[in-house]
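Subject: Osmotically-inducible protein Y

B.,
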Amino acid sequence: MKTRQLFAAIALGTTAAFATLAHAADGKPKQSVGEYASDAAITGKVKAALVADKDLSALDVAVETNNGVVTLTGTVGTAAQADKAAVVTRGVEGVKQVNNNVKVDPAKAK
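Prediction pasted inline below.
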């Protein structure tokens, strides 16, 4: 189980690192470097918190942060898991607001 969490954390961390290279279509950064770095750090912390929670699969929940507002998307098996993802996210330092757009698909229930 620890190995699975480690691999998930590495994969999510790599994704966050590449996300820092994102720019708008006109080549200008979407935010200032400081704002973007802060949002990337928050995203990383949220993903790590989701990986650490044994009731959630971080691979099922996508995280995007903009000016401290975290948007969760993806699909989980139960409403309790969707709610827990939001609760875990709210507990992360730097999160100002959570938009929980996680869908529930009972077919994914474990």
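Strands lie at 61-66, 69-76, 97-104.

T.
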